[in-house]
């Protein structure tokens, strides 16, 4: 008696087989909230470094996470979850089970502030407060329609870079020309729900803020180091993508589990 050939339609999607491993799923969960080093991931998951590195390599090969050399310590690297790609693969995976489970983006233009309430206060930090954090502040404010109150500062403030002003105006329709650079000490006594560091150097010197806000790190290259307009375009695009996910997390109420009848 011969065994019938496996039906391809009954084989779980490759993404499900890869991400379904418990440790890899935990890695994706940790990286979905913040960029982290291997050392931080080993501490977060309580697993040995060689095991974490092995599973990270699997996720990198599948382009679910990517790594970037730290600008603060060139011997280290920060890992980042590719949220747009993960979203696409989750959608395809749901559709493979049933067409009705194919995920679609929510209708509308994103978070709004119809009730006039601030859902969260977020502080973006980088070294110079001349480009990355200024763009992030403006994108969060505009994208949330006022539902998120955003601010920015730097550890060594520099004047607002003209290419940051230009890219925000030309590519995103936002005028940041009136914003000014600030030292993070100016905001040290304010309360925030999240403090997001955008460069590796400022993360090393980030002070404690009142109320123990959730710390988040996005390891984003300084476009000033490249010095070209396309570098500012790339930075603005990456920030817009990350902030899009952030705003959904900040402004979407957590559903209450329904009790069994």
Overall pLDDT level? 89
- What's the number of extended β-strand segments? 6
Low-confidence stretches: none
Total helices: the number is 10
| CATH architecture label of the largest domain | 3-Layer(aba) Sandwich
CATH class of the largest domain: Alpha Beta
Percentage of β-strand residues = 5-15%
Q: What structural class do you assign from the helix and strand content?
A: alpha/beta
Shape: globular
Radius of gyration over alpha carbons? 21 Å
* CATH fold-level assignment of the largest domain: Rossmann fold
**Strand adjacency order, main sheet:** 4-3-5-6
Order of helices and strands: HHHHEEHEHEHEHEHH
Helical percentage: 40-55%
Q: Looking at this structure, what is the CATH superfamily of the largest domain?
A: Response regulator
Described by strand count, sense and barrel closure, the largest sheet is: 4 strands, parallel
Through-space gap between termini: 48 Å
Describe this structure as you would to a colleague.
The structure is a single chain. The chain is an alpha/beta fold and 261 residues long. The protein has 2 domains: 12-101, Winged helix-like DNA-binding domain superfamily/Winged helix DNA-binding domain (Arc Repressor Mutant, subunit A), CATH 1.10.10; 120-251, Response regulator (Rossmann fold), CATH 3.40.50. The chain has 10 helices and 6 strands. It has helices spanning 14-19, 22-33, 38-45, 49-61, 83-97, 132-144, 162-172, 200-205, 223-226, 229-251, and strands spanning 65-69, 77-81, 120-126, 148-154, 194-197, 214-217. The strands form 2 sheets. Strands 4-3-5-6 form a 4-stranded parallel β-sheet. Helix 6 packs parallel to helix 7 and helix 6 crosses helix 10. It is globular, with a radius of gyration of 21 Å.
């Amino acid at each position: 008696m011969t065994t019938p050939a496996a039906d391809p339609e009954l084989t779980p999607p490759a993404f499900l087989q890869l991400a379904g491993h418990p440790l890899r799923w935990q890695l994706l969960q940790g990286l979905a909230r913040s960029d982290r080093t291997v050392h931080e991931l080993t501490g977060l998951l309580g697993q040995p470094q060689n095991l974490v590195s092995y599973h990270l390599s699997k996720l990198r090969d599948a382009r679910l996470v990517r790594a970037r050399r730290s600008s603060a310590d060139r011997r280290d690297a920060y890992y980042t979850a590719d949220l747009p790609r993960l979203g696409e693969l989750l959608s395809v995976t749901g559709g493979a089970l049933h067409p009705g489970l194919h995920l679609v983006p929510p209708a509308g233009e994103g978070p709004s502030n119809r009730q006039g309430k601030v859902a969260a206060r977020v502080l973006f930090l980088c070294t110079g407060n001349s480009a990355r954090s200024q763009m992030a502040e403006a994108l969060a404010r505009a994208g949330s329609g006022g539902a998120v109150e955003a601010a920015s500062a730097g550890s060594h403030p520099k004047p607002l870079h003209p290419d940051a002003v230009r890219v925000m105006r030309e590519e995103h329709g936002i005028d940041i020309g009136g914003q000014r650079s600030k030292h993070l000490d100016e905001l040290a006594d304010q309360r925030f729900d999240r403090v997001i560091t955008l460069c590796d150097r400022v993360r090393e010197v980030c002070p404690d803020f009142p109320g123990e806000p959730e710390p988040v790190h996005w390891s984003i290259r300084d476009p000033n180091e490249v010095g070209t307009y396309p570098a500012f375009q790339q930075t603005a695009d990456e920030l817009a993508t990350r902030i899009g996910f952030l705003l959904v997390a900040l402004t979407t109420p957590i559903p209450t589990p329904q009790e069994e009848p």
